[in-house]
Amino acid sequence: MNTFGGYRVQGRGDDAERIRRDAGPVMEAGAFSVVLETVPEQLAQAITAQIAIPTIGIGAWLACDGPMVDDGMGMFTRFRPKFVKRHTEPGSEGEAAIAAYAADVRDRRFPAAEHVYATASRAGDLA
């Protein structure tokens, strides 16, 4: 969304036709789903009916095959768009886990020997 200048509705006016038209080629290119973020419900309905892969909605999910889980699970703590209903708040715990992981990588505590497969020089270790 930062590409478009923040969280504002996309797909109004002429932009709606461009977004709808792009959905088919995205599917044909091999995508397993299309995320429709902050688009009007009518556009989300049209795209969902048009393509054979699931549509995931962010702020448009009633017309999609399903909602984006991250928002409702509280994975982001810095902001809460108006379309989000939080069911839990694990975001701060996740941020702490990511910080611990980054510290382990920086300090070379992870990965350690027990986290990798043996090389040919350690063939005796293989079962």
TrEMBL record:
The EC designation for this entry is 2.1.2.11
What keywords were assigned to this record? Pantothenate biosynthesis, Transferase
Question: Can you provide one Gene Ontology molecular function annotated for this UniProt record?
Answer: 3-methyl-2-oxobutanoate hydroxymethyltransferase activity
One Pfam family assigned to this protein is: Pantoate_transf
Q: Which domain of life is it from?
A: Bacteria
InterPro entries named among the record's database cross-references:
Pantoate_hydroxy_MeTrfase (IPR003700), Pyrv/PenolPyrv_kinase-like_dom (IPR015813), Pyrv_kinase-like_dom_sf (IPR040442)
GO BP, one annotated term? pantothenate biosynthetic process
Coiled-coil stretches: none
Query: Which SUPFAM superfamilies does the entry link to?
Result: Phosphoenolpyruvate/pyruvate domain (SSF51621)
One GO CC annotation, please?
cytoplasm
Give the similarity note.
Belongs to the PanB family.
How this chain assembles, per its entry, is: Homodecamer; pentamer of dimers.
From the Swiss-Prot or TrEMBL record, give the protein name. Answer: 3-methyl-2-oxobutanoate hydroxymethyltransferase
What organism does the UniProt record list as the source?
Mesorhizobium kowhaii
